[in-house]
C-alpha cells in the first residue's frame, strides 16, 4: 500500500509551531458500509478526495514538541470544533490561534492545551477536545485512528460554514 493510502497526513516539518495544520477525515465505518460490495474502490474514492463521502469532517494537527530549529518533533490531533459550541471551528481555514502552547477559540476565548486538549479557561473549562490517534514514522505524521480515514489536506470544501458569522476575520 502506498503511504497516502496508509493515512499519511504531512511531514512533521510541515506542521506549524505557532498554529495548526488542517485536514479532512471521513468516518471509517461509513466508508466500509458504503463499500460493502467493493470496499477497496470506495475507500480509494474517499482517500482521493472524498467526493462521495457525505460525512467528511475537519481535523487539525498541532505541534506539542519542537527541536532547536523550531521544527515540530511531536504532534497531537483534534477534531476541528470547539467544546463550547460544537459548530464553531478552532481553525477557520488559516490556522488556529495559539498562545503559550494552547489553542484559542476566538469566538469566546476558550483556551485548550495543545497536548491534552483540555480547556483550561473559558466557557467550556474542564472539557476536552475530541482526539484522533496519529503516529509518526520516519518524520511523517499518519492518521492511525480506528474511527476515521484520512481524506486529504485542507478544509472541507462543501461544508456549509456555520462559523461564517464569527466575529473573527482572517
Ligand atoms: S464557541 Fe468556542 S469559546 Fe465559545
What does this entry look like structurally?
9% of the residues lie in helices and 34% in strands. With 170 residues, the protein is mostly beta strands. The chain has a single domain, classed as Rieske [2Fe-2S] iron-sulphur domain (Rieske Iron-sulfur Protein), CATH 2.102.10. The strands form 3 sheets. Strands 4-3-2-11 form a 4-stranded antiparallel β-sheet. A 4-stranded antiparallel β-sheet has the order 5-6-7-8, with no helix packed on it. Strands 1-10-9 form a 3-stranded antiparallel β-sheet, with no helix packed on it. The C terminus is likely disordered. Bound molecules: FE2/S2 (inorganic) cluster. The site of FE2/S2 (inorganic) cluster (FES) has 10 residues, from loops. GO terms for molecular function: 2 iron, 2 sulfur cluster binding; metal ion binding. This is Rieske iron sulfur-like protein. Keywords: 2Fe-2S, Iron, Iron-sulfur, Metal-binding.
What is the strand and helix layout of this fold?
Blueprint: E1 8-11, E2 21-27, H1 28-34, H2 39-47, E3 56-66, E4 72-79, E5 97-99, E6 102-105, E7 110-113, E8 119-121, E9 134-137, E10 140-143, E11 148-153
Antiparallel strand pairs: 1-10, 2-3, 2-11, 3-4, 5-6, 6-7, 7-8, 9-10
Helix pairs in contact: 1-2
Organism: Natrialba chahannaoensis JCM 10990
Domain Rieske: 75-143
GO molecular function: 2 iron, 2 sulfur cluster binding; metal ion binding
Amino acid at each position: 500500500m502506498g503511504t497516502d493510502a496508509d493515512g499519511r497526513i504531512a511531514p512533521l516539518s510541515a506542521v506549524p509551531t505557532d498554529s495548526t495544520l488542517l485536514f479532512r477525515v471521513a468516518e471509517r465505518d461509513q466508508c466500509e458500509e458504503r463499500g460493502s460490495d467493493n470496499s477497496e474502490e470506495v475507500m480509494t474514492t474517499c482517500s482521493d478526495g472524498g467526493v462521495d463521502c457525505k460525512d467528511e469532517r475537519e481535523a487539525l494537527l498541532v505541534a506539542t514538541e519542537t527541536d532547536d530549529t523550531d521544527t515540530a518533533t511531536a504532534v497531537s490531533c483534534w477534531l476541528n470544533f470547539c467544546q463550547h459550541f460544537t459548530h464553531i471551528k478552532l481553525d477557520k481555514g488559516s490556522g488556529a490561534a495559539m498562545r503559550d502552547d494552547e489553542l484559542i477559540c476566538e469566538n469566546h476565548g476558550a483556551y485548550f492545551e495543545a497536548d491534552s486538549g483540555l480547556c483550561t479557561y473559558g466557557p467550556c473549562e474542564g472539557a476536552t477536545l475530541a482526539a484522533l490517534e496519529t503516529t509518526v514514522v520516519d518524520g511523517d505524521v499518519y492518521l492511525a485512528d480506528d474511527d476515521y480515514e484520512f481524506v486529504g489536506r485542507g478544509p472541507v470544501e462543501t461544508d456549509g460554514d456555520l462559523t461564517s458569522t464569527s466575529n473573527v476575520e482572517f
